[in-house]
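Much of the work behind modern protein science is quiet bookkeeping, done one molecule at a time. The protein below has been through that process, and both of its lines are reproduced in full.
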Amino acid sequence: PLMKLNKKIEKEIKEMYDYTPGVDVEAKPLLAMFKPDDPEEFIL
């Protein structure tokens, strides 16, 4: 079940942010990035 959850999260991140972890070793992890102009659509 945990692998299923990981795959689902990976798929959603790819669709929402066009980000694939591990492709670029120099890239910052997705959750470590912050931009002041982010739309913050996820905040209720």
About this structure: DSSP finds one helix and no strands in the chain. Residues 1-32 form one domain. The helical segments are 2-17. The chain has a mean pLDDT of 84.
